[in-house]
């Protein structure tokens, strides 16, 4: 669907605010601490345009709110029109500058529409956060091949395609790209083969792009998220591809979505290469590097004792 030829016209399935941001882009401010400022479209990120995939719900929605609070304009995305529109309306009602585009990020043409929405609504694109993802609750031996592909694609092509579509604009802005990964990708996790493989691939992608595109000034980073509170209606895929609730996680192990969003915001503003969330995540990182056999022993033991945690 071509959308770039008539700049102010809303794209089908994509909603833009009435007033495009006229402000010039301030320079990125690495080193600035996140603040709790809530002055609607004013703030340290005023004039910056942020695209967050999978932001109709969960961590993506809270991350959108965190960027909005500092004055950024945000393009929201998801696959479910009603849920996406509800999120857009909620943030717009809070006074924030938001647009939204229904797009499956594993479809390149849809990603072109998504990026066009940012340009149509706000005239530029500074930050891309690839957050959309499908997770799983299924052992590899039981998984339908198509289910593996779906989970893997949502994490890998769901990051590659939005980035391919956005890259020229991010280069023009000397912007920032953050791939959302998981601490389960740092060592691998039983019942998460396609998810962990997809999330792990993002680290190498970020590193390679950092080298290939070093001259462009674009920031490439990865955030490894640990256990986080989930929306009650969050679903993951079982071995047959059926949506099922996520496996049980003790609430005391979980961060709130707002806490995680604040960490993602800080990661982007500081243009960090890697942010590992939670003490458990940092422990996995160290044990995987220095004592990998011990790490595997802990996982295998916990798998026997805490089946509910994996299944
Ligand atoms: N929550 C945790 O404990 C945790 C832990 C580690 C890492 N993470 C990571 O954090 C990120 C956010 O997770 P979350 O807990 O907030 O999950 P979530 O609530 O399920 O959010 C994921 C979003 O991505 C969307 N999405 C999935 N596939 C898509 C596609 N092909 N195109 C467009 N949108 C798509 C989903 O919408 P649909 O309704 O269209 O599926 C949903 O809005 C994910 O990358 C996840 O892997 C989360």
TrEMBL record:
- Note down the stretches annotated as region Disordered: 1-41
Q: What is this protein called?
A: SDR family oxidoreductase
Composition bias type Pro residues, residue spans: 22-31
Similarity annotation: Belongs to the short-chain dehydrogenases/reductases (SDR) family.
Cellular component (GO) terms are:
membrane
NCBIfam families in alphabetical order: PRK06181.1
Q: Name one Pfam family in it.
A: adh_short
Task: Specify the Ketoreductase domain's residue ranges.
Answer: 48-228
Record keywords, A-Z: Oxidoreductase
What are this entry's molecular-function GO terms? oxidoreductase activity
- The reply to whether Glycoprotein figures as a keyword in the UniProt entry is no
């Amino acid at each position: 669907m071509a959308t770039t030829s008539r700049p102010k016209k809303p794209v089908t399935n994509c909603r833009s605010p009435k007033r495009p941001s006229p402000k010039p882009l301030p320079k990125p401010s690495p080193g600035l601490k996140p603040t709790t400022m809530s002055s609607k479209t004013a703030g340290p990120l005023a004039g910056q345009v942020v695209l967050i995939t999978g932001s109709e719900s969960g961590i993506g929605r809270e991350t959108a709110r965190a960027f909005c609070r500092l004055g950024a304009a945000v393009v929201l995305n998801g696959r479910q029109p009603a849920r996406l529109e509800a999120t857009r309306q909620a943030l717009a009602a809070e006074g924030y500058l938001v647009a939204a585009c229904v797009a499956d990020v594993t479809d390149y043409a849809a990603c072109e529409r998504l990026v066009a929405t940012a340009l149509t609504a706000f005239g530029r694109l500074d930050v891309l956060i690839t957050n959309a993802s499908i997770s799983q609750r299924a052992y590899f031996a039981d998984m339908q091949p198509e289910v593996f592909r779906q989970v893997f694609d949502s994490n890998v092509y769901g990051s590659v395609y939005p980035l391919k579509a956005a890259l020229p604009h991010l280069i023009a802005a000397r912007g920032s790209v953050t791939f959302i990964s998981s601490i389960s990708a740092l060592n691998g996790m039983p019942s998460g083969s396609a998810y962990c493989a997809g999330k792990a691939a993002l680290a190498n992608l970020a590193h390679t792009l950092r080298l290939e595109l070093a001259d462009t000034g674009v920031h490439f980073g990865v955030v490894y998220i640990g256990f986080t509170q989930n929306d009650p209606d969050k679903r993951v895929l079982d071995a047959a591809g059926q949506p099922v609730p996520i496996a049980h996680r003790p609430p005391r192990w979980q961060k709130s979505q707002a806490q995680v969003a604040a960490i993602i915001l800080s990661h982007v503003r500081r243009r960090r290469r890697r942010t590992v969330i939670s003490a458990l995540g940092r422990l996995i990182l160290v044990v995987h590097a220095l004592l990998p056999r011990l790490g595997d022993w802990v996982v295998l033991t916990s798998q026997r004792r805490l089946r509910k945690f994996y299944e």
